[in-house]
């Protein structure tokens, strides 16, 4: 027989995973547009104004698809996850309401003014509308991460009548994982927006080597990508990993592949599923590094997988692999973006055809990395839907049979496939239109 818990988890992973393609692009691109609009407004440079207008149209397409796919997720709390909704309803209501009232309405209101107000309102008001789109998208991410982080590290509540009831709003909002996860997610979003912009700008330059739009966008994108790629690895990523060690030791052991409790854990670079269930077989390690990164020179024990009951451990290899691939791609982003900034600084960028070709296929890689980070975080939290409070198997709706979940899963999969193809088509069509326009200007 089909397992309704597994089917509901797959459906939620599909809908959230597909939706999560678009917010990182939206947030990152919105802040890049703030830079482009600021330069265009303050210097009166028409190139930056035209560049911002073009990428603003790509933002509009991305925003529209993101809104359409975001609605689906919240309905699932009441359909497939009724016991979960009953348990956390008192907690989740506040951040989700704040996201809708404070963030989403701010973002959606000002994106209309930004897109349609150009040359109809003053330049200052138009710039402010762009800033509010970026602020609104950032606030939206914050409130969604508040809700999700509470699942990871619940705080500010009491258990009463078999449900979590809010007692301290500030403690719930600023639970131990909120800020580390928010800062790391914002880093990821800015990297995603930067590589999205850089790849499209590189394509424009390959089609028309002196494309002013391509040059302006690529300069801003490469500097943004280099800065936040470095921050993601050496600051927000490191801080988030230390927070996971402190608050979710079983997840940390799975992500890092620490099998036995030790104060001198090696860094596992490559690993495979171990001979024992829920263990990692290390293939390539660097001695002492994980212990040093986690605790500095103080010898504090790091709990290994063997110190937890198997029923309290997540599926170990999936989050381990996702986490390690994510870090590998993060290092790739550092290498590509820093190389790009060096080429820009030495005035070799516009002639480096090989580098422009390299940038185009990097467009989807940060999006994939966001998905990998999400897998590491959410699968690593299992078997808990609310960490150490409510198991995922106990959160399912009792009245929804597996057949209905399977039907809706197939329906969502089909719709999302069409919607994904439509998004790629619309973005590609708008980019080709821009290429044709620039070539026509030359003629």
Structural write-up:
The protein is mostly helical. The protein has helices spanning 4-19, 22-43, 46-79, 82-116, 123-152, 169-173, 178-207, 212-247, 249-256, 289-295, 317-345, 353-359, 365-379, 402-442; strands at 157-160, 163-166, 267-273, 280-286, 384-386, 390-391. It is globular. The N and C termini lie far apart (66 Å). The model has no long low-confidence stretch (mean pLDDT 88).
Q: Low-confidence segments, ≥5 residues, pLDDT <50?
A: none
* Beginning-to-end CA distance, first to last residue: 66 Å
Radius of gyration equals 23 Å
Largest sheet: 2 strands, antiparallel
How many beta strands in the DSSP annotation? 6
The order of strands across the largest sheet is 1-2
Helical segment tally?
14
Structural class by SSE content: mainly alpha
* Helix-strand sequence: HHHHHEEHHHHEEHHHHEEH
The outline comes out as globular
In terms of DSSP E residues, the strand content is: 5-15%
Task: Give the key terms.
443 residues; two-stranded antiparallel sheet; 6 strands; 71% helix
């Amino acid at each position: 027989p089909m397992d309704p818990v597994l089917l509901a988890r797959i459906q939620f992973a599909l809908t959230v995973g597909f939706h999560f393609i678009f917010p990182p692009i939206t947030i990152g691109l919105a802040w890049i547009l703030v830079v482009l609009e600021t330069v265009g407004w303050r210097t009166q440079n028409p190139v930056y104004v035209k560049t911002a207008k073009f990428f603003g149209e790509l933002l509009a397409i991305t925003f529209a698809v993101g809104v359409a796919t975001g609605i689906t997720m919240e309905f699932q709390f009441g359909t497939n996850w009724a016991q979960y909704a009953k348990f956390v309803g008192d907690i989740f209501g506040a951040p989700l309401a704040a996201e809708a009232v404070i963030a989403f309405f701010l973002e959606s209101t000002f994106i209309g003014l930004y897109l349609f107000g150009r040359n109809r309102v003053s330049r200052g008001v138009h710039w402010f509308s762009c800033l509010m789109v970026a602020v609104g998208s950032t606030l939206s991410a914050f409130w969604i991460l508040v809700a999700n982080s509470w699942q990871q590290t619940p705080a500010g509540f009491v258990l009463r009548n078999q449900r979590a009831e809010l007692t301290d709003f500030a403690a719930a909002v600023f639970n131990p994982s909120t800020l580390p996860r928010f800062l790391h997610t914002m880093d990821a979003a800015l990297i995603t927006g930067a590589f999205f912009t850089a790849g499209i700008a590189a394509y424009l330059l390959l089609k028309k080597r002196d494309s002013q739009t391509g040059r302006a966008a690529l300069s801003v994108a490469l500097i943004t990508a280099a800065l936040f790629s470095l921050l993601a690895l050496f600051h927000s990523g490191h801080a988030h990993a230390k927070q996971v060690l402190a608050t979710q030791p079983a997840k940390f052991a799975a992500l890092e592949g620490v099998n036995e409790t030790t104060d001198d854990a090696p860094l596992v670079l490559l690993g495979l599923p171990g001979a024992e269930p829920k263990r990692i077989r290390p293939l390539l390690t660097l001695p002492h590094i994980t212990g040093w990164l986690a605790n500095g020179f103080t010898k504090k024990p790091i709990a290994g997988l063997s110190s937890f009951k198997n029923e309290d451990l997540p599926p170990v290899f999936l989050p381990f692999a996702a986490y390690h691939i994510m870090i590998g791609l993060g290092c790739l982003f550092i290498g590509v973006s820093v190389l790009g900034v060096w080429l820009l600084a030495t005035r070799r960028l516009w002639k480096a055809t090989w580098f422009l070709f390299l940038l185009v296929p990097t467009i989807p890689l940060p999006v994939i990395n966001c998905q990998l980070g999400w897998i590491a975080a959410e699968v690593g939290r299992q078997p808990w839907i609310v960490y150490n409070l409510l198991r995922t198997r106990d959160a399912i709706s009792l009245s929804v049979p597996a057949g209905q979940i399977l039907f809706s899963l197939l329906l969502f999969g089909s719709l999302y496939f069409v919607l994904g193809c439509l998004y790629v088509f619309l973005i590609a069509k708008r980019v080709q239109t821009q290429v044709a326009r620039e070539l026509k200007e030359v003629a």
